[in-house]
Structures are given as structure tokens and as C-alpha cells.
Automatic annotation (TrEMBL), chain A:
GO MF term list: lipid-linked peptidoglycan transporter activity
Entry keyword Isomerase: no
Organism whose genome encodes this protein: Salegentibacter holothuriorum
GO BP annotations, alphabetical order: cell division; regulation of cell shape
Name recorded for this polypeptide: Rod shape determining protein RodA
Segments passing through the bilayer: 7-27, 47-66, 78-98, 145-169, 181-197, 231-249, 322-343, 355-382, 388-407
Cell compartment(s), UniProt: Membrane
Keywords recorded for this protein, A-Z: Cell shape, Membrane, Transmembrane, Transmembrane helix
Membrane topology, from the record: Multi-pass membrane protein
One cellular component term from this protein's GO annotations in UniProt: plasma membrane
UniProtKB/TrEMBL annotation, chain B:
GO MF annotations in UniProt: penicillin binding; peptidoglycan L,D-transpeptidase activity; serine-type D-Ala-D-Ala carboxypeptidase activity
UniProt organism field: Salegentibacter holothuriorum
GO cellular component: plasma membrane
Membrane topology: Single-pass membrane protein
Keyword Transcription: no
Compartment(s) of residence: Cell membrane; Membrane
Protein name: Penicillin-binding protein 2
Domain Penicillin-binding protein dimerisation: 46-207
Pfam families, per the entry: PBP_dimer, Transpeptidase
Gene3D superfamilies: DD-peptidase/beta-lactamase superfamily, Penicillin-binding protein 2a (Domain 2), Penicillin-binding protein 2a, domain 3
UniProt-listed InterPro entries: Beta-lactam/transpept, Beta-lactam/transpept-like, PBP_dimer, PBP_dimer_sf, PCN-bd_Tpept, Penicillin-binding_protein_2
Length: 416, 622
């Protein structure tokens, strides 16, 4: 048998180790009890449990890398199906914490299947797109792949976990890379812009703006005898969308959703109520200054002013205790990781590996964007963890699986 | 393009995040301040303020505990306002106003809501305090006065104002600070250093231990105890003598420059400016624009010095060599100069030389020697500047660099001054135009402390230590160069003897014959100064000021004194008597001339002071 293994990509593995290690250091600081003696094996403290999760990740990595790469391709449908079942099963067996039915409780361990479903979906999408008959430019095939993505997304949305559901939009990058028309992305982008603009300025201004732009473009193209009907149609759709956004926002969104958007849009400054998280997080990060206050010396972190600081808001600990230099270091690690993965994905001969790689990058990017954006106060409060750094077994393992399957696939790219 | 899109998006996101972090962490520093505010509580521990004793060790000022009700608006919870207001006897509306004000000042910093509770109020409130979340009691130390005099010397402490808080990081709102007198000048000695504790808070505002194990915490340092040069007994006596009069007394120990007493009249009991009554009392004193009890006349009042200034005219003439002590000048009820101008004088023997000139306070004699002094030089400008230089060496016309919280420079004119008012060189001026200076009128202005220091210089025959009020710090005598190095005047020692003799003669057979003290050789000089006020915009002359300077004993001076009594008519009428009694009190510690003392205690000038504000025509100098 020809030697198919070309070696694991140690750059990616090194970045992974740095992120996970630095994550633990910050979780330790953020979850440090006031006067409790420091005990690294203290399983009551998040830092102790995270240390255990990290140790178990090593076993998981060994396991993932020893399985033959072909296995992931061959069994992707099975993995996907099991994942869907685990999500659906939540509505029967799951336990509800803070209004979300997102966990299976087995003894003292809670498992969050939504975290693992992302990797499973990435495998399924890769498998489908790498099929010989599949043509992404074909509308029927498009519908099918949308369905693959939408199924887990809807199940997650029903938990309800809007943040995790949002992550599934990241597959758009993989689809676009494989030939999906740019219009889909553009449409998504316009919809998002209209959505935000409607909330920020109100539907009247936005409608006025749409009509003004339509008229201007129409007049500019007058010599080419533009189709008036077409312009009216697009303007009408845009106006309708804006109005429906307003309707959905005012009548379907819950108050806490509205609040979260309003804070980011600067329409409401309520630092004591719903804005508390963002405000405290900004204070913690801002007070870190250039060099930070030093490890375990953050006054905001010690006083536990930022809620959920060891999970979703872990980046605020980095900002406070390691300052601008530390936060920049983390930003650079993430950017490097994503660029490295892009490079790896592009060197694949196998469509399956490339699509999977793009899935991995998209998921990591979406988490990076939404989480750090939220912590530094330029995104609404959406509760999704920062990959590799945030506290949590399910999250850590899910991202470990996601990443190391790709590392395994990449290592055997010759044989594909 | 399909391969590039994600690269671009990742890069852009990274850059946007980087920019936002740069803004939060490097550019915008308000977050750092807010972090200190909500995570770290700063608790101060106030030390005892230093005690103040007089030169003989008599305690003048000590401390009493005081309790301020403080509030941190952010931490306030709804409470039983009625009960709270009842305990503290405050109107609910007033409480509401103060809490609003505190909130505007800062929601997270403490503000004083009710200052300076009594012990009884505090004891009762303390039991209930836990019911009023957000309020707490800050213990401070207030002044406890052991004397009812020296208010102007000691000064007072009060809550620091916002301007000072902004300027000096040591102070926070609600701190007490010396606002005048010794309390102000020696604030840093007296206050000590407050201790500080940094306490790490959690988001429920609970203490979770010292910040960084307390490495930044400090213990309070007690303020230093100081002794001042004032003789409390003499000061009390001076204030007693000055009852119902306006003016000042300054007494200096010539050999050391120590200020023995610094009396201003009218004055007030220093205890008035302590505790919850401080504010209304202060307002009352502040708005008394007629008697002006907060105005320290001993330091601030600039009067024409009158005849005592003749001693300096004589000294300068001797130093400049324009006269000999035996040169005589005639006086025909005055001195006629220029084109028919005349300076009047009272009847006395004529002609006179220097010693009887001083003893008889002959205007004519000093006018002529002054003129000779100025005219010794080719131009009146040079003459005037020489004269000015001599007077400056007596500490006149300038802030003396003493350690008092307030003061005025007085005025000694120079050539520039006269060039300006006479519009030189368009118009010329000569010594005769400035002749009134010779007898301490004209353009010369002096404060009582300058007058006292001038007397001390004559007593010392030519030198002085800068007058000062601080004697010891924590029992150690002060060593400041400013107060322990002699200032020499430009007049040679030999010229002082005839002047001292002349001033001695004032008591023996001159204008103060009736004021001799049995057993004490005393030298002095009377003075009378014309003064004017404006009534309905019209310049109106008032009864003359009564001025007296003296020192004793003549050969070994222990005290030099200047007394100034507004509208006291002539020198020996009020000021001379008071000076004589003060000197006797200080040297003998008892008064032998009880009839003289009785006369002063029983005589009031209130009637005189009422004249210009009565709105009716009045007669002066009766």
C-alpha cells in the first residue's frame, strides 16, 4: 500500500494548542473563586472541569486521527442522520436550562448536540456537493443542499437557540466556492442591510431611500430604455421587505430581542438593564489598556462584573488582563488559523475535503465574528461561544472534532 | 474571485475588530476610570488633625470627633424617609434636594448629605444605620477650641471646595481643609496623611477582599502638633482691650521676629465656625459689611502711618548724612515751603534738634530733614529712589514673606510713581511735592504688622527677623532659613541710638508722658492719621485714627508693639493707652494701673462708628 499519509498540518495544530491553552489560562482567571485555595483538579470550578475536557480532547484527537480518512466521507450520511436524530430527540429527552431545550443530561454531564451537529452538517454538505451528478448551478440541487442545511438549523432554532442556528448561514461560503451564483450572497447581504437600516432609521426613511435610489438609477439608465416594470418590481420587493422587517420586529420579536438590537444600534442606552452585559464587557476590555492588568489581576474579572465571562464573554477577560496586545494576539491567531485552513482547503484535489474545509472555516468564522463582535460591542448579544477558548465540554469537543477531521482529511489528500 | 471572497471577508473582519479594540483599549481612557469606579472601592481613614498650642505650651486647639452622614447615590435603596428625617431633624424636601445634588455630583462617589452630627444624634442613628442602604457614617475630627480668642490667628477648617478637589488629588469632596489663618498656612503639617484602603468589589457591590492583597493600602499618619508664637494670655488681653473699638494690635518679640499677638477688632469666638452651626454663623460674619469681623485689620488694613514714621525719616536723614543729631530746625507752628504752602505743627519749644524733635513730634523738623534728604541728589528722582531703597530694607511696601495666611504690601512710593502722577517729563516735580511723606502721610501706607516690625527694627537697632507665627513642630523649634536669618537694614547701627532716645523721651517728657509704666523703661511714638470716607459720593473727613508704636525695655527689648484704633482721635488717647497696658501685661504679667485699664474697658467708639452711617450731619474729632 502506497504511503498515503503526507503528515498532519502542524501549523494548524500549533494554533489549536495555543488557543486552547490560552483559553484555559483565561477561564482559570475568570472562574477563580474569591478565597478558595487553588486546586487545579477541583471539579467544582470551571477551570478544573475545563482541564479535564482538554485532557479528554487529547484522547479524542488521537481517535480522530487514527480513523481512516475515507471513513468520514463514507459515513457522513450516517453521522448526519444520527445528529439530526439527536437534535430531534431533545424535544423528548432533553433538559431545559434557561429556556433552551438544548442539553442531554447524563449524570453530572450535560451534552449539547447542537455543537456537534455543525460538524455533521459540514460532512453532509461536503458529501452531497462532491457527488458526481451534483451541479450546484442546478436549482433542484440547490434546493436539496439548502434542505440539508436547513433541517438541523430549524431543529436548533426550535430549541430555541437563534445564535447556533445563525451559524448555518456560514455554509453559504462553501456553496459559493463551489459555484453558487453570487446573487444569492448579494441578496443575503442586501436583505441584511435593509434589515439593519429599517431598525436603525425606521421604515419611512428606508422606503424613501429605496425609491430615491430606484428613481436615480432609472434616470441614469434612461438612454438605454430601461424596463420600468422591472424597476417597480424591485422597489416594491425592497419596500415590502422593509415593512415586513418592521412588522416582524415590532410584533413577532420578543422584547429582549428588540432590546439587543436597539443597544447595538445605539438607540437605547440602558447600562443597568439589558445593556449591562455589553457595557460591563466594554468596561472590562477598555480598562485593560495597552498592556492589560496582568493575569488574575483584572478587577472586573475578579468582581465578576461581566456575566458568563468564562463562557461566551471569555474574550473580555483576555482584553482586561492581557490588554490590547493580548487581544490582538488572539485576533491574529484566529485570522492565521482561518487563512491556513483556506490554504489547506484550496490545495485539496478532493471536492469532499475542500467543501468540508470551507464548511469548517465558515463555522469558525461565524463564531469568531458574532462572538467577538458581541463582546466588543459592535454586534447584538447573541449567545454563541468563542471557538477553542470558551469554557464548555461540548463546545470544545465539537470544534476539536470539526477541526481534526479536516486535519485528517488533509493529511491523506494524496489518496483521494 | 470565488477563492478570494473569504480571504477578503476574514481580513476585513480582523481589521474592524482590531480598530475597535484599539479604540476601546488605547484611545478611549474613560473605561479605565469606570473600571476603578465600579470594581474598586476606596475607603479613607482620617487621622487626627494636629493640636495647636501657644508659645508657653498652653493648648489652644484640640479635636472633637464628628460624624458626617454620607451617601453613595448608586447604592441607595428605598428607605423610610420619614423616620430618617425625624432622627436627623431635616425636612424631607431638603433631604431630597441634597440627594439630587449628590447624584448630579457623582452617582458612584460619596457625598456628604448631613455634615457634623452631634454625638447624641450619631449614637441614635448608628443603631438604625443598617436600614439605610447606601448611606454610611464617615468619622472625621473637628476642631475643639480651648480658647475663645485668636479666631483670626488660628483660622478655621471647612469642607474643601470643588476647585481645590480638582487641583489637588489629595482631597476628595467632603474633606476638611484649613481655610484661613494657621490652619490654612500649615494645612499640610496639621492634616497628616489620610490612610487609604482599596477594596475589591463584586458586581453585587459586596467586599471580596483587599485589592492586590492590599499592597496599595496605607495607614493614616497623624497630623503634627504645632506651637505658635502667640502668647495666648496677651492675645486674650489685647482682644479684651479692643472691645467696642475697631483696629488692630500687633506685638512682636524683636529678638526673634516671633509674633506675640495679632489682634483684630471686632473679632469672634472661633467656636462659632465649628459644627452644624458653622454655615449660618459664617454667613452672618461674612455679611457684616460694616464691622467686618472676618477682616484681619492687623494684617490687611493699610493706613497712613502718621508720626511714628518720623523715626524712619530721621534715620534716613542721618544715614544719608544730611543732618547731624545736633542740627536744629526752627518751627513756627509749622513749616512754610514752596509758594506759600504750609505744613502745620502744634505748639512746642523751637528750634529743636533730633531727639526733642521726635519727643515733640515736630512736623517742621522732619519736613526739613526729609527735604534735605531728597535734595541731596541732583534730581528728585534719584533722591526719591534712595529714600525708597532705605524703606524697602525695613520690609515696607512689600509682602514681608511671613507665614500668615493673608496680608497687604502697603505702599512706599518711588520716583516712577511720582513721574506717573505728575506726568514727568512734561511736568516736573520736586521734593516739596512729596513733603507729606516726611510725617507718614501723603502717599505712604503701612499695615499694623509693618508698623510693629518697624518698631522691632528700631528696638534691635537696625535688623530684624521676618515676623512669623510658627514656633515649634512636634516640639522641635523651627529651622526655616527665612525666619532664622537676620535681615539687615541699610541704616547703620549708630544712627538708631538718638532715635531710640527720642522715642524714650516721648514717654519721659513728650506726647506720652501720662503713659509711663512704673519700673519699665519704654520707648514709643504717638501717631494721628487723618482719614476720609465717602458719604453719598462726597469725600468726608472722619475722626482721626489713633496710632501708637512702642517697645520695652529700652535696653533689652522684649516686645515691640503697634496699636491702631480707627477714629480714636489722637495717638495717646486710645492706641497709646492700649500699647502701654499690653507692654505691662506682657512684661509684668499683671496690671498695676487699674484706673487706666478701667478707662479703656469702659470706653467705646461705637458712637463714633455710627456717625457716618447715621445719615445725619456729624462733628469729628471731639
Amino acid at each position: 500500500m502506497a504511503k498515503s499519509n503526507t503528515g498532519f498540518d502542524w501549523i494548524t495544530i500549533l494554533i489549536y494548542i495555543l488557543l486552547v491553552g490560552f483559553g484555559w489560562v483565561n477561564i482559570y482567571s475568570a472562574s477563580l473563586g474569591t478565597n478558595n485555595p487553588v486546586d487545579f483538579l477541583n471539579m467544582d470550578a470551571p477551570y478544573g472541569r475545563q482541564a479535564l475536557f482538554i485532557s479528554l480532547s487529547i484522547l479524542l484527537i488521537i481517535l480522530l486521527l487514527s480513523i481512516e480518512a475515507k471513513f468520514y466521507q463514507r459515513f457522513s450520511s450516517v453521522i448526519y442522520s444520527i445528529s439530526l436524530l439527536s437534535l430531534a430527540g431533545l424535544f423528548v429527552f432533553g433538559s431545559t436550562i434557561a429556556g433552551q431545550t438544548a442539553w442531554y443530561k447524563i449524570g453530572s454531564i450535560s451534552i449539547q448536540p447542537a455543537e456537534f451537529a455543525k460538524a455533521a452538517t459540514a460532512l453532509a454538505v461536503a458529501k452531497y456537493l462532491s457527488g458526481i451528478q451534483t451541479n450546484i448551478k442546478d436549482f433542484k440541487h440547490q434546493l436539496k443542499v439548502f434542505l440539508i442545511i436547513a433541517l438541523p438549523m430549524i431543529l436548533v432554532l426550535l430549541q430555541p437557540d437563534a445564535g447556533s442556528a445563525m451559524v448555518y448561514f456560514s455554509f453559504a461560503f462553501a456553496l459559493y466556492r463551489e459555484g453558487l451564483h453570487f446573487a444569492y450572497l448579494l441578496l443575503g447581504f442586501f436583505a441584511a442591510t435593509l434589515f439593519v437600516a429599517t431598525l436603525a432609521f425606521g421604515p419611512l426613511w428606508v422606503i424613501g431611500g429605496i425609491l430615491l435610489i430606484a428613481v436615480l438609477v432609472y434616470l441614469k439608465n434612461l438612454k438605454r430604455k430601461p424596463n420600468l416594470i422591472k424597476y417597480l418590481f424591485f422597489a416594491a420587493v425592497a419596500v415590502g421587505f422593509s415593512l415586513s422587517v418592521n412588522y416582524v420586529f415590532e410584533n413577532i420579536f420578543k422584547q429582549h430581542h428588540r432590546d439587543r438590537f436597539n443597544i447595538v444600534l445605539g438607540k437605547e442606552v440602558d447600562s443597568r438593564g439589558i445593556g449591562y452585559n455589553t457595557n460591563q464587557s466594554e468596561i472590562a476590555i477598555g480598562s485593560g489598556g495597552l498592556f492589560g492588568k496582568g493575569w488574575t489581576e483584572g478587577t472586573q474579572t475578579k468582581g465578576h462584573f461581566v456575566p458568563e465571562q468564562h463562557t461566551d464573554y471569555i474574550f473580555s477577560t483576555v482584553g482586561e488582563e492581557w490588554g490590547f496586545l493580548g487581544s490582538t494576539f488572539i485576533l491574529i491567531l484566529f485570522v492565521l488559523l482561518m487563512l491556513r485552513l483556506l490554504y489547506l482547503a484550496e490545495r485539496q484535489r478532493s471536492t469532499f475535503t475542500r467543501v468540508y474545509g470551507y464548511g469548517v472555516i465558515g463555522i469558525i468564522f461565524m463564531h469568531f465574528l458574532v462572538n467577538i463582535g458581541m463582546v466588543i460591542g459592535i454586534f447584538p448579544t447573541v449567545g454563541i461561544p468563542l471557538p477553542f477558548l470558551s469554557y464548555g465540554g461540548s463546545g470544545l469537543w465539537a470544534f476539536t472534532i470539526l477541526l481534526f477531521i479536516f486535519i485528517k482529511l488533509d493529511s491523506e489528500r494524496i489518496s483521494f | 474571485m470565488r477563492k478570494l471572497l473569504l480571504y477578503i471577508i476574514i481580513f476585513t473582519t480582523g481589521l474592524v475588530f482590531l480598530a475597535r479594540l484599539f479604540y476601546l483599549q488605547v484611545i478611549n481612557d474613560s473605561f479605565a476610570v469606570r473600571s476603578q469606579d465600579n470594581a474598586i472601592e476606596v475607603v479613607y481613614d482620617y487621622p487626627q488633625r494636629g493640636y495647636i498650642s501657644d508659645r508657653n505650651g498652653k493648648l489652644m486647639v484640640s479635636n472633637q470627633p464628628s460624624y458626617d452622614v454620607m451617601a453613595i447615590p448608586r447604592n441607595l435603596k428605598p428607605f423610610d424617609t420619614t423616620e430618617f428625617c425625624e432622627i436627623l431633624s431635616i425636612e424631607p424636601e431638603e433631604l431630597g434636594r441634597r440627594l439630587d445634588k449628590a447624584k448630579i455630583y457623582s452617582p458612584i462617589l460619596p457625598s456628604v448629605i448631613i455634615p457634623q452630627l452631634t454625638k447624641a444624634e450619631y449614637a441614635y442613628l448608628q443603631e438604625k444605620m443598617r436600614k439605610y442602604e447606601g448611606f454610611y457614617i464617615q468619622k472625621r475630627s473637628l476642631r475643639d477650641y480651648q480658647v475663645d480668642n485668636s479666631a483670626n490667628v488660628l483660622g478655621y477648617i471647612a469642607q474643601v471646595n470643588q476647585k481645590k478637589v480638582n487641583e489637588d488629588p489629595y482631597y476628595i469632596s467632603g474633606d476638611l481643609i484649613g481655610r484661613s489663618g494657621v490652619e490654612k498656612v500649615y494645612e499640610e503639617l496639621l492634616r497628616g496623611e489620610k490612610g487609604v484602603k482599596y477594596i475589591q468589589k463584586d458586581r453585587f457591590n459586596r467586599d471580596i477582599g483587599p485589592y492586590k492583597e492590599g499592597i496599595y493600602d496605607t495607614l493614616p499618619t497623624k497630623g503634627k502638633d504645632i506651637s505658635i508664637t502667640i502668647d495666648a494670655q496677651l492675645q486674650a488681653y489685647g482682644e479684651k482691650l479692643m472691645k467696642n473699638k475697631r483696629g488692630g494690635i500687633v506685638a512682636i518679640e524683636p529678638g526673634s521676629g516671633e509674633i506675640l499677638s495679632l489682634v483684630t477688632a471686632p473679632t469672634y469666638d472661633p467656636a462659632l465656625l465649628v459644627g452644624r452651626k458653622r454655615s449660618p454663623n459664617y454667613t452672618r460674619l461674612y455679611y457684616d459689611s460694616i464691622a467686618q469681623p472676618l477682616y484681619d485689620r492687623g494684617l490687611l488694613a493699610e493706613y497712613p502711618p502718621g508720626s511714628p514714621f518720623k523715626a524712619l525719616t530721621g534715620l534716613i536723614a542721618l544715614q544719608e548724612g544730611v543732618v547731624d543729631i545736633n542740627d536744629t530746625f526752627s518751627c513756627n507752628h509749622g513749616y512754610t515751603y514752596g509758594r506759600g504752602r504750609r505744613m502745620g505743627c502744634h505748639p512746642h519749644a523751637s528750634p529743636l534738634d533730633l531727639v526733642p524733635g521726635i519727643a515733640n513730634s515736630c512736623n517742621s523738623y522732619f519736613a526739613q530733614v526729609y527735604r534735605k534728604t531728597i535734595e541731596k541728589y541732583p534730581s528728585p528722582q534719584e533722591g526719591m529712589d534712595t529714600w525708597n531703597k532705605h524703606l524697602k530694607s525695613f520690609g515696607l511696601g512689600q509682602f514681608m514673606g511671613n507665614d500668615l495666611s493673608t496680608g497687604r504690601p502697603g505702599k512706599i512710593p518711588d520716583a516712577d510713581y511720582y513721574n506717573r502722577i505728575y506726568n514727568y517729563p512734561t511736568y516736573k516735580w520736586y521734593a516739596s511735592a512729596t513733603l507729606s511723606n516726611a510725617i507718614g502721610q501723603g502717599e505712604v501706607l503701612m499695615t499694623p504688622i509693618q508698623l510693629a516690625n518697624m518698631t522691632a527694627i528700631i528696638a534691635n537697632r537696625g535688623w530684624y527677623y521676618t515676623p512669623h507665627i510658627l514656633k515649634k513642630v512636634d516640639g522641635e523649634p523651627i529651622k526655616e532659613e527665612k525666619f532664622t536669618v537676620k535681615n539687615e537694614t541699610t541704616i547703620d547701627r549708630e544712627h538708631f541710638d538718638p532715635v531710640v532716645e527720642g522715642m524714650h523721651q516721648v514717654y519721659k517728657n513728650g506726647t506720652a508722658r501720662s503713659l509711663q509704666i512704673p519700673g519699665i523703661e519704654i520707648a514709643g511714638k504717638t501717631g494721628t492719621a487723618e482719614n476720609f470716607t465717602k458719604i453719598d459720593g462726597k469725600r468726608t473727613q472722619l475722626t482721626d485714627h489713633s496710632i501708637f508704636v512702642a517697645f520695652a525695655p529700652v535696653d533689652n527689648p522684649k516686645i515691640a508693639i503697634a496699636v491702631f484704633v480707627e477714629n480714636g482721635y489722637w495717638g495717646s488717647r486710645y492706641a497709646g493707652k492700649i500699647a502701654s497696658l499690653m507692654v505691662e501685661k506682657y512684661i509684668k504679667r499683671e496690671i498695676t494701673r487699674t484706673d487706666l485699664e478701667k478707662w479703656i474697658l469702659e470706653h467705646s467708639l461705637e458712637e463714633e462708628y455710627a456717625k457716618p452711617i447715621s445719615g445725619e450731619p456729624f462733628i469729628i474729632n471731639q
